[in-house]
Structures
1.
Amino acid sequence: MATIELRDVEKIFGDNHAVKPMNLTIKDGEFICLLGPSGCGKTTTLRMISGLEAVTSGTILLDGRNVTWRHPSDRDIAFVFQLYALYPHMTVRDNISFPLRAEGMKREEIDIRIGEVVDILRIHHLLKYKPGKLSGGDQQRVALARALVRRPSAFLMDEPLGALDAELRETMRAEIKALHHAQNATTVYVTHDQIEAMALSDRIVVMSAAEVQQVGTPAEVYYEPANLFVARFIGSPGMNLIDGQLDGDLIRFPGNDSTMAVPAHFRVPLLAALDKGDDVVVGFRPEAAAISDDSTMAGEVYAVDMHGGYKLLHVNLGTATDPVIVHLRADRLASHPMGSSLRFTADPAMLRFFDPKTGRAISPSETAPVQTQPVEVTA
Amino acid sequence: MSDFYETGPSKPVTESIRVDKVSPRSRRIHSLRAIVVIALAIFLLIPIFIMAMTAFKTRSDVVSSPPKTVFEPTLEGFVFLFTERAIITPGRITKLQEAAESGDLGLFDRIALKSGQEITGPSDYVTRLKNSLIIAGVSTLLSVILGFFAAYAFSRFNVPGKDDLMFFILSTRMLPAVVVTIPLFLMYRQLGLHDTHIGMILLYTVFNLSLAVWLLKGFIDEIPTEYEEAALVDGYTRMQAIRKIVLPQAMTGIAATAVFCLIFAWNEYAFALMLTSNTARTAPPSIATMLGRGGIEWSAIAAGSLGFLIPVVIVVFLLRDYLLRGVTFGAVRK
């Protein structure tokens, strides 16, 4: 097993800056997700680690060894491709043994190794088939087996579940998690699906526009987004972000008589970062809202989505012509007809503030109250 | 007819078909089309039928007018084609007659006595057929091998001026053969390539290479690069990845390309006529020159053409599925 270290790793394709200088240290046995919208450079980063893409500048260390200019086969890493890349003209057995045969391993030893991985992934019955005959989930298991059989020092996975349907994706996600738990191998996993990233990772690297936006545990990127992009991107729907103005201990919202009290732990940092009357972006998660008639925030119900376990309300804080929509989570039995008025407040512990000029989050003065509530994210 | 729009078809629809194709009218048009296609196919096959019949006719049947459709088949044409014959001298005839009376006459002698001709050895056509096989076979092999590597490079690497180069390769096909025959003839005479196997192999390889590169590039483009990348990560070199991953998957494309190259090299007439005279002469021009000696041997010509068709027909029949992919540059998925 191994640590992976990226030092100022950068990639330029012609005029296109695909990955801006990036620093990242991945600990031994850690499960890291590179998360971001398509075209953000996450796959390019993964391909640079594998050696399938040469870096423009920077250094890649694998277990302290500089592998920046090493051949892909010389890095002792396994790559799982989005479309599995199982060789269609070979049987499953030949596919799995393919990397071992490259090493010139003896037949008996190959059989032992194959036996081990098919046990782990429960694919004995598939060995004699060609990949084309298998279902998507089984193909993915075979692809994982082919990666696993080498006992590499690290796994790189490029959206391995992207081609599966939703139900199977959930099953395979659990399998990958169990596999990682058992093997404890350093894994770098690329995905654009934040649910996958939240569910699997020890740490998430959120990327956008060729840059790392935030590196943190799933809870950190969810509750303490470093900037507006992460706040919007993580969670579905993302964090509610409302433009307000700082007025002493209150935030006022132009064009609306709503106000919000600045929580105690944000008073000093907000005044340090902003002047009175400055614009500020207030952020809170839908589940941080509490609906009650004596609250300070007012809006009109614009739409209601029934999610089964709860209702998601789209509430307009602005006007019909200039809407400001926030999403609130409400009890599944509560009745909120469309067009009705509504008052709510947000849990002060879950409030976040952003400087609209830089887009960055303003940190609270002391550590934020610990969240005990489990993360609930729904597609 | 108008009932159809009210009540639908008389039989339940159990196939995947658009609703307007179910109406009796479009069904009729559909069968009409099939009839036209079949009629056209029969019409186009008529010359082949006539050729095949002529090949089995006797000399007198060939020239009879109106042409005979019912006749006694004979292999005379094939004998004329493959053998060199001499008219039997009167002395030999008397000897054969004597032998016939005593009853110990072999099969060949009996034929010789009946026709007044004797087989003296195989005809030139046999060597020419062999030339055709060697030249077409080797040039096809070379075109496919060279074409595969060129196509791979064009498909996978950033070759500078890729599009221009690909167009240039295609443009070698744009000149009609007649235009380049004379310069080629002069060049070949200077280089000592005239009437040599190597000369013809080179020529056909060069001609087929453009087709091979274009066709194979289409097929290789279809093979995802992930396969090779997976092999690279799994510890293989690029050449190993090509051999173990790309080559097996490009097999259908290679087969289709080989058929096209083989058909061209096998059928080529104009260059063979100009650039060969004896040692490297291929079959197509020699069939035509058979017209000459002692009257037109129509049955021999027909037999030669028929025999010449057979290898190509067999190859095409065996590889017919790949051919469809070949003409569509690999766009049809099986």
2.
Amino acid sequence: MPSDPLVAEHVLEFPGGYTRTTGPVIGRFLTELRDGRIVGVRTADGLVLVPPLEYDPATGESVTEEYVQVGPAGTVLSWAWVGTPRKGHPLDRPFAWALIKLDGADTSLVHAVDAGTVKGIRPGLRVRPRFKPESDRIGHITDISCFVPEVTTMIAPVRIEYRIQPGRSLARFLEGVRDGIFLAGRCTRCDKVYVPYRTTCPECGSTIGEELELPDTGTVTTFAINNLPDPRAPEVPFVSAYILLDGADVPMIALMGDIPAHEVRQGMRVKAVWLPPEERTLSMTNIKWFAPTGEPDVRL
Amino acid sequence: MREVAVIAFAQTKHTGHDEGLTEPELISPIIQEVKERSGLTRFGFTCSGSCDYLAGAPFSFVSALDAIGAWPPISESHVEMDAAWALYEAWVRLQHGDVDSALVYGYGKTSQGDLHEIMTLQLDPYYLVPLGLDQVSFAALQANAVGAEPGELREIVRRSRADGRANPYALDLPDPGEEEYDVHPLRPMDIAPMTDGAAAVVLAAGDLARELVERPAWITGIAHRTEPHYLGVRDLARSASAADAARAAGVGKGPVEVAELHAQFSHEELILREALGLPPGTAVNPSGGPLAANPVMATGLIRIGEAARRIIDGSASRTVGHASSGPCLQQNLVTVMEA
Amino acid sequence: MGNRCAVIGVGQTKYQTKRRDVSIAGLVREAALRALEDAGLTFKDIDAVVIGKAPDLFEGVMMPEAYLADALGAAGKPMMRVHTAGSVGGSTALVGASLIQGGVHERVLVVAFEKQSESNATWALSTHLPFNASLVVGAGGYFAPHIREYMRRSGAPDHIGTLVAVKDRLNALKNPYAHLKIPGINREMVESTPMLWEPIRYLETCPSSDGACAMVLAAENKVTGTPAWVHGTAMRSEPIFRAERDTVSPQGGKDCAADVYRQAGITDPRREIDVAEVYVPFSWYEPMWLENLGFAGEGQGWKLTESGATALSGDIPWNASGGVLSSNPIGASGLIRFAEAALQVRGRAGEHQVEGARRALGHAYGGGAQFFAMWIVGSEKP
């Protein structure tokens, strides 16, 4: 049987860390960084290098002594998403590495972008440095904790609470529906029967005085087959149909049931399927749906 | 401009609570009433004012169309503003000369939600809404800028409520008592009451107006102006837009017997009196004004209707109706009517 | 119809799913400043501003005209806010034109917008109050049954909707502002997309867009540049629940068209109108509106579509811009139709210009196909 392999931990670390001298160019950059500014250096060709180097990376020529303040904002050119940060990473939550071209610079800076989720990072994203507090800054690239997206969106919760009553006509109609009855109103002027019950005539505007009960049977005039889910429908697809109740002059929109969606037809005869009386409330949900009666279709 | 007059006005008996009526159910009786009063059943143009955020759902005005007898199809439009601006749109439409009558209506139920918080949503969505600045608070900022005497404000409230008690359509509110501040310097009495209600007006042009009523309330001037939005860029103690609108409408060209002002807070009356340049003898808000009934979205139209009514019934010969919109009287409309 | 009125400036934003780079004010200013630039004017030349948009729920800003007043240079001026459901963009143009026709103002800026990406279109359109257990899911859920009824009545073959979906997207490829640009769009592509609200397929529906559109309207004495003259304006509304309402070809649309044709002296729209920008949010509404607007007899609209007459190369191009099927910032969609009609008769429609267009129809509808707004514009003074 194999024995455990012999293993030991080993650390290679210069105690206290290396002491690096920066030279004038990097030193200038880190000094400015400690003060909360980002500078680049201009090359002989007029390009601004950020972070600054002592030489033009293309030609090897020395850069000029001209420093240019850039940013602080910049644009992400490319990025990598770190889902599980390592110990030495600048952030301890998922973040992006990015090449950031700061405004006024001709080269880009590598740094971390705290973008929340991978959906929050993209080329072209505008970002700004989040500096550490001044007292914590020591002249180090991590004086910038990270970059963060510029503010382009704000979440604006809008929530208004209401107390809504159904209104006189709908309340009356719902009483009927609780009792298993469709209440309608007849406009005596237009001789038209409206269901659900309503108190004014949409055609002539006069008050509807006459109330009558309609049967719970009718005819499908037209319908939609909905392939999008809806909390009010038991399944997808579901059929929302215009149903002209017998004796009514205006169709009601209702759910169809007890039939596959694609078998519903214009002209089909239907009857309401009600919840058992003990389950009914003052609500349209008392009508589960309309189901075919099996009678011959009506010619439209 | 073409001669156009208010020839009929009707309003609900406004309530301080939800009567259980939908908006269409609120307006239906007053549409019927205004048709009877004007003798017209069809109108050349129809325009209404309402607000989805008061109703709590989008397209609140759509169902209202089913309550006014809009058949055969009518020439119609809608403003998401106080219905006073619907009246303005109708007045403009009558200037074309091809139609002679217009129906205007507005309605609002403030009982269904917290109006003062709903009005927050009308503010700058970046700098003001996130602060949760409510209507009483921004009005209080303006009241403070005006620096009114507490006694003067109390007298405005007392007079408005007394007049309101005499007005069968307004709420019955008691004389103001001792009250703590709501948002200093405003006390609850300084704030218009929660109200449900609706109103309708019929406009008619020239000969048609003369045919239909004995004393049409001729609109001799009507104008509106807005000013910048952000409170910090305006002089809140004044209303430049109300003053401009009043000048354009010609308020100062004659005496003003009655002025109905859309002042939803007592201090707004002071600002508006000054902006409109009302002479000391003018009776302000003899109906009780918004401090006695404030069915939002109809309140401004009711000011015009009340001012017109005084001419139609022969009790005045030159009156002013004013309407306002936006936070701290940002937008103002002034109508001058004459016998 | 009162004093003469003309369009002297048009401005549009690029329409796209999300305009993340602008605020609401930035979006409307983009369109407004382009319209002013087109007219060679600045905000200070404008007498009044009319702003239109669909429900405030889209952005969660109630009566946004208050916040937008200074963004549109309206300080010290009259400003109005129009809302007539989906037809609002058209109504906004008509309210603006009315201010000039009524002799009240000489130069009016009209702006309509929607920034739908701040919330969600289906939510903003379908949120309803308790108790009203309407089973309608989104606009498609409402219109699908009426399309089905049109198909039954007219006997139109199933592929007609597909043809419109392809045609309008081909046009969109020629419009720099259009939202949906689908290279290689064809019938197979449309037919391969799922049925959302049968008989409506995914690619037979309009997109949800952010965008704004603006126009500068002027009285005759202030007309500059190449104007589009207003030859007729009309609005009609009808109750949604009226018994025996014809939801396939609503009377309001017929009456509105008859009114606007009468003003413009048009007796045969098919022959006398050169190009039409008609509110077609679901492809089947092209044949339906062809009949409703009198371009074809009852039951014949689909034949006109099938014949290619409404294509950009046809004798009566409909929605040369790509239409609502290609760009749909709802509150602005109607104004875009009116503006595109104006661009056509000004000869400024670019790649989607209809050669020699002299008279154009702009059309918008809303609610349950119950609010209508239309205008006729022409290159010649009426």
